[in-house]
């Protein structure tokens, strides 16, 4: 089983993948931008300001999804003593953090024309800011500590604490009176958002997911090269 995690074998696959992912990303992003900026209608209340949604919402979704993945991988790595899980987590974190910041910035830009203010200590905004702090702590730990075992323990502890915040972000609009509206998209029931806005939103989400995958592959390949340079045959 450990032969599957040999750097040479993994690198043969991951080193070729970025160019294909980049091509797909450009195609999907191009379609998404046309749908979001040209084809999709303006909102009857927010007018063209609603188009910020096509960046803000996917960025938030991707950020939450990546942090959840990092937590699961970190726990699995700690339980099964598999370094590759930690390496994947470390490589995923930068894109998750970037999209977290994008979600906060675009939310602030969107807030000005809709709420009349750049920032409000709304429950969802505040919980997203807290998530960004957990991302920052996670990344800093990998920078500060040299001993692998110590990094694994501390980073896993940070993700376990941080994952508690994820359902708070999700259900904050239901638990408290917030400036954010309730969820417009429901998997188990009919969504309130019209298909003319839903499809561009899903396409842009796919584009952002591909971009996250591209950043991950670049970071992961860099980590594998470092391992190969150390003369290690496997993780």
Question: Any chance you could write out the topology, listing elements then pairs?
Answer:
Layout: H1 7-14, H2 17-39, H3 53-80, H4 83-115, H5 123-144, H6 148-163, H7 165-175, H8 195-229
Please describe what this structure looks like.
- By secondary structure, the protein is mostly helical.
- It contains 8 helices and no strands.
- Helix 1 runs antiparallel to helix 8 (195-229), helix 2 runs antiparallel to helix 8 and helix 5 packs antiparallel against helix 6.
- The longest helix has 35 residues, at 195-229.
- It is globular, with a radius of gyration of 19 Å.
How would you summarize what this structure contains?
The chain is mostly helical.
What is the rounded Rg?
19 Å
Instruction: Please tally the helical runs, counting DSSP H or I stretches of 4 or more residues.
Output: 8
Ranges with pLDDT <50 over ≥5 residues? none
Q: Please tell me what the overall shape is.
A: globular
**Terminal Cα separation, in Å?**
12 Å
What is the helix/strand order?
A: HHHHHHHH
The largest sheet, given as strand count, sense and whether it forms a barrel, is: none
Share in β-strands: under 5%
Notable characteristics:
single chain; 235 residues
